Structure prediction request, 181 residues.
Amino acid sequence: MPDPLDVRRIASAELTPAELARLRDLFAACWPAGEFTVDDVDHALGGVHWVAEAGGRIVGHASVVERFLEADGLPMRTGYVEAVATLPAWRGRGIATRLLQAAGEHIRAAFEFGALSTDVHGLYERLGWERWCGPTFVRTVETAVRTEDEDDGIMFLRTPRTPPLTLTEGLTCEWRVGDAW
Prediction:
């Protein structure tokens, strides 16, 4: 039986208003209590998306946006994974795995390293992601502010351009509206 799932890669700038509306519908279905905010949608835009579609409906999504993270002050161009989502009825079919494999290939080809924030570590660990073990911070204009609540949720993907890291260094992201990580 042929795979009814189509996975497309599309840049944020190429998303049509109808596709953006379909993505918002996907996020609302995946986070029905409203945990996925307008800021979260904004964070997912500005990069590259992988969209899984079946029967004309978006059933899964992942995006990679460029950010600059610093490990002990060393700035690195980072492919940051955002908005990984699969419709509840479609979970358990490997959709997120397919989307994340494509995103990982993109990160390895284009960035110094990959990063993301999650509380679902196993999915990413199976795909070569590692947990960041060092303290996390967010950069503001004045200083770096500790983000202890994020320490256990940051994951890291090595690329051919990743400098030697122990994963215990302090990791800092830039401040942004909504969730910093």
Summary: The longest helix spans residues 95-110. The mean pLDDT is 96. Residues 79 and 110 are 8 Å apart (CA to CA). Strands lie at 6-11, 48-54, 57-71, 74-86, 113-117, 130-131, 136-139, 144-146, 154-158, 171-174.
